[in-house]
Structures are given as structure tokens and as C-alpha cells.
Amino acid sequence: MAKVIAQILAFIKQQWHDFISLPKVFYSGIRAKLALFTGSLIALTILILSFIYVRQQTQILTDSYEREAAISRRYISSLVLELDNISQSLIRIEEFRDRVRKQTEALKKYKTTKTTKEENKVSLFGFKTSLFGVLGKKTVRKSLATYYSEYLSKTDIDTLEKNIRSQLRHSGDQVISDFDFSRLQSQAKKFVETDREAAILRKHVAEMKEASENPDHTEITAVEEELRKKSIEARGYRTHLDASIAALLANSKKKKIKDLGLDTSRFRIQSFPPSGIVHGEITETTLDTKIFDPESSINQVALDGPLEDGLKSAFTVLTETVGVTGEVPPTSFQQNGLELQALYSPHFRNPASTERARLVDEVRKDPGPWRQFVGSIQDIQQELSKIPPALEARLKLLREKKPPVPPHKDKEFKIQYEKYAALIRKRDLAFTAFRKNLRLNEEEEHQVDAMETLRDSALEDQVLLRFKPDGSDYERYIHSDSGKEYFKKRWAALRSWIYSGESETPPAKLKASFPDGIIGNSRTEAEQILWKLDTTPLISDETDDLATIVLSSNFSGIIRTLVDRTEGLKEIHQNRNRAVVSAFGICGFSIFLAVFISGFVVQKIKRIIRGAEEVGKGYLNVEFEPGGNDEFGNLSVALNQMVTGLRDRDKIKGILGSMVDPVVIIEAMKDLAALKRGMEKRVTAFFSDVAGFSAISEKLSSVELANLLNEYLSQMTYILKEHDGVLDKYIGDAIVGIYNAPVDVENHTLKAVKASLKMIERLEDLKKGWNKDRKYIQEARDMKIRIGLNVGLAKVGFMGTDALASYTMMGDTVNLAARLEAAGKDYGVSILASDAVYAEVKDQIFTRKLDLVRVKGKNDPVILYEIISDMQSASPKIREKTRHYEEGLALYLDRKWDNAIKKFKDAEAAGDGPDKAVQLLIERCKEYKATPPPISWDGVYTRDHK
């Protein structure tokens, strides 16, 4: 018991000593490292999690703001649509007045004159009398209107004006005064007049540019500058008009926005028309919720700088990159001490045709079976596109006749429109038939319905000037069969009016079908719109398709939502800072705890260190005490095994003195006697040599020569070992290698071939480095190697004396490999292999059959093959060259010397330069041609040198 108490007191004393020397601990030792690592890991983990938390919370905050603003943004979008409609209606009134006046004047030429005889009359006692013809007769000429002389009437203008007043009255909280309405009309008139002048200048610029091959650029620049100023002036009038309308409706709309829950102190929503976004100019807004709460901080933010750049960038992305239905990523920035985020979304007029076009656009991105349908109606579309030009020409002819002929009285006009209507019906029937074969879910049903009705919906939206666009037409159509029937009747009536050609202005029956607006175009104008929609392809990858032109036509600008995230981000950052402070506190506590706990294990480590120091001094009789089943116990076992291994290493020092290759050493450790006995085994013999190395070595200093050889031999030997080869020996610059001994190697011949190819490739890399660094002499930087490969039986084992021996190979297989390496010089090839090697690798390696020879020291002929590359890497040029060469070799063996020479030359021409093997065989052909070989000649060439 006393012993246990003494141990506890000693431990406490040691811990106290460690504690008071705590500062010293942090300078060195595993305790400091462990403590710092533990504390740092915990702190880093908390820091990383805190930053992840900030990102997640920021995204959640952004999503929350987006959802909060979404409802209000939809209302703002409808409000912008309403304001835009009022503004457009006022502009259309002024345009109508201008157009009616101009068109009425222009169309007078189509009126006819009727001449009649009437009796002269006088007034007698308040009655008109001709006095029984006594007064005689007079000639009277009357001007009669024709089909072509009619245009929209003043009644249409009055109707539109009346409905605008009504719309302003219902949208606001008070009746608009005549003065205010007159002011709006005046602003609209100024815009129309200025915009018309800008259009005239724009047309003038285009005419000047097309007038001649060498236009006057100075004059064009002056007109363009005038056009720019006029366009800015027109934009200013439009902005003032929009602002005036918004101001009149501000009070009533402010209450609605508050009811929807939009916090105008944190959100600012703005709309921008495309005409207001001009590079180099200040952007104009259609509506800015600043008018509802001008004093809030977010509404004090200036709209220049990053906001202006971000808006124009978003506009460019929508119009030039992702398309008007695409998404623009939000941008974040700081301004006026506020953390702001700008969200961008496109804004469209004509909600019904826009929604249909959006659905069709989704189908266009992944058309599936509808691409087949579009292809099936291509003939219909082509026939349909031929009719509008013919109708246009016919209408021009009818208009110019004296008197002008109404279209509905012309047979040719009727025939063309009957054909047109028949093609439309045929296309609709094809669509219906194709649709029946598809199984569609609800979403797909809406997409298909949109494809079917988009043309008619877009036609209605483009010709109808609605009194109040509430955006409910599409919902009414989708969710009600009666709604579908109602709109289809309207569309049919609209087409019938255009097809019939009976009236240039909308008849009363047609007007009755559109109680929610007036048709703001003549039949001729509506006809042009119809032709454009009907002849545009539904889906196309080559040109603008239907959805594209409808969306582009309906695109009316961008809505930007500015979000003040200052308070939200401030709270998130405060939470992060608290987490960071907590992290450092936990880190400090963890370090202290780690230092304390590590005291239990440091003593074990110190004992292990002392034993390791003894081993380091060479004392191998050390035994590490077992440490239990934990990591220290495993470490003690491993160290004891290490000491045992070191003792064994001393025993094999003699072996290491005479061995080179680790594989041989391992096998010698297993059974040295077996290796000394040797054996006959099928091996792949490898010989390599540097071409012309003697000349290179003579020009290098001893240091350079040693460096060159070490660098070269290290790389080549590494590749040899990488492919399971065993190094036999170095002979100067030559390398001798063995494959498949002393251990078995699967596919040893293929591995030897692949190693040879890799060596050629690695040498090229070495030479590039030498050239780049200007190392050694030029001959060394250009050096080439030759490799000889053969496979067969050879004697392998330790050969030499008892005192000094090496593991090597001997036999005809080995000698032939050496001869092949030397023969490579005659043929100018890098890797030369025997037919035995070829038989092993022919399915994986691309080769060239070079020659049939009888090498010195062997009677049996050998077929020589050049190893070129693996089968996949052989280029068409190499394959063609090889084919010509092997065909030439076959002709050579067949004694057809001239044909063989031609093929050999074709082979050389197919290559990248002179071919030594080709030249050798050509010379031999010429030699045999001059002095033919004997009849018994078997095509084998006998080499008389090694």
C-alpha cells in the first residue's frame, strides 16, 4: 500500500513539475506538438464550421428576402404593366391621331369620283324647289370612299381615350382632373413627335450608308449625333410621362404595397425599359418604389457606379447570352455603409402570349418527339410561306386599279386565302393527330397547348390594345373549358376578318368580341402580323423560331430588386465572431488538457527513445519492453522486429557486396544454393548500347562523363525495374537485363518490349532537358541508343568464383540478343527483335519486318523485326510506310528486284526522311540484279560481322 501511495505521489510530483515548466514544453517535445495539434484542430474545425455557417445563413437570408420580395415583385410587375399600358395607350392615342390624319390623307387617292346631273333649286318660303325644272340642271361630282381609303376612325380614338380616363380613375384614389389628363396627353404628344423625328433621322442614316460605296462619313457622323440627341430627348419625354402617371397613382398603390407586406425600408424595386438602358447614358426607370418611401436609407442610395454597371451587365446577359427568359445571378456590394444585393428578373408585356412562349421555349430546349413533328410539317410551312408574297403583290395590283377593287371581290385573292386557310387547317390537323399519340402529364399538356395556341394568342396581343391588362387571360383559358371556347372564338373571329378582306377596319361584330380593348390596327396591318406568326417555324435551331420572336416582342425590360441586408448580415457576422471567440477558448482549454494527458504517455515514449538511441549506436542486443495492446505495444513489437532485421542484415552484408539487383538479393535470401546451382529457363534477354559513345566519352571530362552515365543509366535502369526486369550488369554505357529470372514474370517478353519503348521515350525527354540547360556536348545531347531483344532458353544463375560471383545469363538466346543490338546500327533502327519476340507481342505491338539474316555464329536464319510502338499509337503515316516496306521485302525475296526497289522507295517517301534499312535493301537489290544469287538462294542474308 505504501508503495502504491509513493508511486501516486511521485506521479503527482512529476505532473506538478511539468505544469510549472509548461512554457518550456511549448518550445519542444511531443507534448507541445500534440497539444498544439489538438487545440489547432479543434479551433480550425470550429472556424471552418463558422464560415460554412455564415455562408449557409447568408444564402438562407438571401432566399428569405427573395421569397419576401417575390409577391410584391409580382404586384410591381403587374403595376408596371398597368402603367406601361396607360403610357402606351396615351402614346397610341397620339400616334392614332397622327396616323389617322396621315393615312386619311394618303388614302384619299383611293377614293372614287361619281358625276351626276341634278336640278337647280331655290329656297321659296323656307322650302327647296326646282320650279318644275325651269331653273335647269347642274353637274355634281361626289367623292366616294372605297375599301382602301378607310382607316381607323376618330370614334376609335375617343373610345380609347374614354377608357384610359376610366382606368386612371379606377387605379387611383381620386378622379383625375382635365388639367392632369391634358398634361399627360401633352407629354405623350411630345414623345410621339420626338420619336417620329428620331425615326426619320434613323432612316436617313441607313439611306446615307447604302447610297454609295464611299459615303460621306463626316455627314453621317453629324446625323448620327443628331439622332443620338433626339433619342435621348424622346427617352426623357417617355420617362416624364411614366413618372407623371406613377405620381398620380402613388397614394393608392402605396397602400396596396403595404398590405402585401413589402418593407420599403429594406426593399427597393425598380423597372427599366429596354430603351432606357443605353451604354454611356444614365439609365431611366419606368417605376421606382422610392416614390412610396423616399426617406428610407435604401431609397437614398445613388443609382450610379456598381448599380449602373450591374444593371447594364444584366441587360447584356439577358439579351445577348442566356436569352430573355434566362437567369441573371444576383450581385452583392457595399454602398453608403449598407450591405446591398441586387436581384434581376426580366419583365414582359402581354402575359398570355408570354407564358405560352415560355412554355414553348422549354420544349425547344429539349424537343424530344416534337422535332419529328416539325420535320413532318416542313412541306406545309414551305407552301404557306409562298402565299404572303403572292397576296401582297395581288393587293398592290387591286389597290392601283381604277377604281380600286376591294379584296373580297377579287377571285384570285379569295383563292389564295382559301389555300392559306386550308394549309393552316392541315397543319392544325397534323398537330392534333401527332398529339394523340403522346402520353402527357399535366405540365406537358400545358406545353403542348401552348404550342398549339401561341400564334393566335400572340396575334391577339399584338393587335389588341387592352383597356386594362390584368394578366388573367391565360389562367382563365387554362382552368376553364368555357374560357378556352371563349378565346378560341375570339381568335377565329380575328382570323376570319383578316381572311375575308371585306373591311379594312374592324366591323362592329368583331369589336363586340373584344370588349376588353380595341383593335388598334387596320386589317392590312394585322395581316402582316398574322403572316409573320404563321410562317415562323414552331421550333428551329437555324433561325429565330416562334417562341423567340414572341418573347423578344413582349420583352419590356428588367425589374431590379435592391435588398438591404445590413441588419441580417450584421447579426450573422456577430454570431460568427462569437463562434470564433469560443473556438479560441476551447483551443486554449484543449491545449492545457492535451499537455496534462500527454504526461501519461511521454514516459513510455522516452523509454522507447533510449532504446532506439542504443540501436542507433550499433548495439543490436537491445530488446524493447512490451507495452500492452495499444499503439505503444505495437510500436515495441515493430521495433523488436526491426532490431531482428538489422541483425539479419549484418549476416547478408557479404551477399550485398556481390549482388546488385534487389530481386536477386531477395531470392538469394530464400535459397542461395539454388541460385548458385543455376538452371535453364526461358527468359527474355535485353541488350542496350549508346551509339557512338566512344566518340562522346573522348570529348567529355571525367566528371561530365560520370554525370552523363549516372543520369542516363539511372533513368534506363528505373524503367527496366519498373517493368519487372532484373539488371544483369553494366558494361560501360551498355545495359544487360534479364526478364523472367530469377523469379517468374508474367508476359515477360511484352514487358521487355514496353520497357524498351519507354526507354526510347525517356531518352528523348532527357535530351530535351540537356538541350534546354545546355548540358554536356552536342553529340551527347543528340545521342541515340540501340536495343536488342530475344526470347528463348538460357542458363541463369550465379557465375564466378566462391569469392566473387554475379547473377547472369548465358547461351545462344543471349548471344543473339547481343547480335541484334549490334545489327541495329546497319538498319538504323532503335529496337531490333527476333522472330521469337515478334511471335509473343505481335497482337499488342506494331512492328516492321526488316530482313532475313544469318548472324555470325549461328546457322539458322533469323527474321528481324523493328519494334515501333504499341498498336494504338501507330500513326497512319507509319502504317503506310511499313506496308510499302514489307511489300518491297516480299518482292525482294521473290527476286523481283525492280518492283522491290520501287516499293522500298515508296516506303521512304511515306516516311519523314531517309531510311537506312530502305537504302540497305535497295543496294542489295541492285547488287543482286547485277549479280543474281544462285537458284538455291533462300532470301537469307549472311552477316559476316557481329
From TrEMBL:
Taxonomic superkingdom: Bacteria
Record keywords, A-Z: Membrane, Transmembrane, Transmembrane helix
A GO biological-process term: intracellular signal transduction
SUPFAM superfamilies: HAMP domain-like, Nucleotide cyclase
InterPro entries assigned: A/G_cyclase, Adenylyl/Guanylyl_Cyclase_3/4, HAMP_dom, Nucleotide_cyclase
Residue ranges annotated for the Guanylate cyclase domain, each copy included: 684-821
Signal peptide: none
Single Gene Ontology MF annotation: adenylate cyclase activity
GO CC entries: membrane
PROSITE patterns in alphabetical order: GUANYLATE_CYCLASE_2, HAMP
A Pfam family: Guanylate_cyc
Ranges that cross the membrane: 34-54, 579-602
Domain HAMP: from-to ranges: 599-651
Name of the protein in its database record: Adenylate/guanylate cyclase domain-containing protein
Organism: Leptospira perolatii
